[in-house]
Amino acid sequence: MELSAATTTPPGGVRGHASPVPPLPGPLEQVAAILRWYEAHARDLPWRRATASPWAVLVSEIMLQQTPVARVLPAYEAWLARWPTPPALAADAPADAVRQWGRLGYPRRALRLHAAAQLISERHGGEVPSSVDALLALPGVGSYTAAAVASFAFGQRHPVLDTNVRRVLARMATGQQWPASGTTAAEIALARSLLPARPEVAARWSVAVMELGALVCTATRPQCAACPVAAGCAWRLAGSPAGNGRRASQPYQGTDRQCRGRVLAVLRDSDGPVSPAQLDAAWPDATQRSRALASLITDGLAERHSGGGYTLPAHPPGRLQPTGRLVKEPGNASGPGHMSPGR
Fold first, then answer.
1. Could you tell me the fold of the domain covering 46-154?
2. pLDDT at 170 (0 to 100)
3. How far, CA to CA in Å, does 188 sit from each of 53, 159, 207?
4. Among 2, 29, 39, 61, which one carries the catalytic annotation?
């Protein structure tokens, strides 16, 4: 005789009763699971090694802003081979930094690293400072970079919120596919609540969740089957609903940004002043080319040469305030704010 559903004994259960549903993992279990996953799957990146100096960590964080690891690795190695310490970089001209930066993109980062090296040399004895406040006073260092350097170089306990971390926490804890367009107080509070109590473990947790976002909980193809916290992920449990917080990628071909890169490449590849005729050959549209050159001069990436033509900057584009912030000389516009890093 066939038993009815009401009297069937479920596997592992009691006749007439459903098996108990295991409780979802809580925050502590999720943190522990991600730390275990990182122990087994972490990439061997040079800035994560015990031998990496605080300067090396700072260089890596600046380079990794909106630039993938594969492109950063050779540039990072070459940069530190040439300038292993802040005083070594500070002793050279800004033009050397821009030229060494090559085609890594967003070249103002090279100027900011040079300015930071100068300030570190002048006010910190050539050593990268360890406090978040002192790091925030360095040119080009925003809240994310300051927290990252303090955590990864000095083993401190700070919430570190890059784009990967923010995406993982949005999905795991709040059930949203994408985080808000800008970091919110609620995100910071959530990240702080998940930090392990011991500073060295907190620092490891920060890089672990960052790695999870880079390798598993990715922006376009999350690998939920390989995720150590999939069982308790709020976004997955909700059916992975689509969000609307991701920005569409911006075109590059034919833009002012591409024109600017072409003009800068001519300056970078020359050992001396570049004539207007040489720049004319870099881009066909005269109006766009003129606009690109003007923006490079405004940003301190190019300057007019006294003998005619244009060169990379021989001097820093601004002076330093006592706080360490760059101040543009009169007539120049301020640069953009701190960029979100991409890994």
1. Endonuclease III; domain 1 (1.10.340)
2. 96
3. 27, 7, 16
4. 61
Residue 141 contacts by C-beta under 8 Å, 6 or more apart in sequence? 58, 116, 135, 149, 338
Q: Kindly give the parts of the chain with pLDDT less than 70.
A: 1-25, 245-249, 316-343
Tokens of 228: 């150590």
Containing 76, the helix (H) or strand (E) segment is: helix 69-82
Q: What is the spatial distance between Cα 34 and Cα 202, in angstroms, rounded to a whole number?
A: 12
Looking at domain 256-315, its CATH architecture is: Orthogonal Bundle (1.10)
Residues paired with residue 328 on neighbouring β-strands, in sequence order? 318
CATH 1.10.1670.10 fits 163-195+204-237, yes or no: yes
- Pick from 255, 266, 275: which is nearest to 301 by CA? 266
CA–CA dist 152, 60 (Å, integer): 11
What pTM did the predictor assign? 0.82
Non-local (6+) Cβ contacts of 153 within 8 A are 52, 53, 54, 57, 58, 128, 130
303 as an active site residue: the answer is no
User: Encoding tokens for residue 298?
Assistant: 């405004």
At 249 the pLDDT is 66
Q: pLDDT tens digit string along 146-187? A: 999 999 999 999 999 999 999 999 999 999 999 998 999 999
Tens-digit pLDDT profile for residues 272-304: 899 999 999 999 999 999 999 999 999 999 999
Indicate the SS3 state at residue 245: coil
d(CA 118, CA 91): 8
Q: What is the DSSP string of 98-122?
A: HHHHTTSS-THHHHHHHHHHHHHHH
Cα–Cα dist 25/252, whole Å: 44
